[in-house]
Design a protein that fits this description.
The protein is α+β, with helices and mostly antiparallel strands. The longest helix is centred in the first third of the chain and has 65 residues, at 2-66. It has helices at residues 2-66, 72-86, 103-112, 153-165, and strands at residues 92-99, 128-136, 169-170, 174-175, 184-185, 188-189. It starts with a helix and ends in a 6-residue tail after the last strand. It is 53% helix and 13% strand. A hairpin with an 8-residue loop joins strand 4 (174-175) and strand 5 (184-185).
Length: 195
Amino acid sequence: DGIRDAQESRGLGDVYKRQFLMTRSWDASRIAADFRRDASAVAVALRTTVGQHLETLYFVRELFRASQKVERHEFDAFVQEASRRHGAYQALEWVRRVPASEVEAFEEAVRAEGFPDFRVHPRTDRTERFVVDYVVPYAGNEPVHGYDLASHPDRLAALEEARDTGEIVASAPTDLIQEAGEQIAVLVCVPVYQN
């Protein structure tokens, strides 16, 4: 009887073992399917959001293409609406290419528009600067106004690639100068050439 009980117990153990393995396999398949479904939903949402942001940048580019000169208040009004509709921007900026020989005249012109303390920063010996001229929203992004994006290698690489290819280019992840902590962001550049 003891042998038979041991055999039956082993047989029952094999049954439980098979059931456990089947259940574990089913759980792993279910978890993998749930993950694929969730990852797919996140990917679709991300594509949609990024697409909306890129669409906004294309519209801003077309504003500049369609105008002889876009005034600061026009940029502000246009971008405020785009930001309200699509949100999630730290800032939308108009960045000017400023040759070193024109920096002082550029600073004076911006000061005359109501920014008495405006200056290009940081000062470098580069022959051309890419300076943040318009920034929306201004509140909270004051430190970026006048910032020379060419002073940072990752930002400069994205700006030069956008300029040279005519395509939208995103920088490597970079920290924001207007944030006290370490907030990582991506700079997305859309080139606009002079009419």
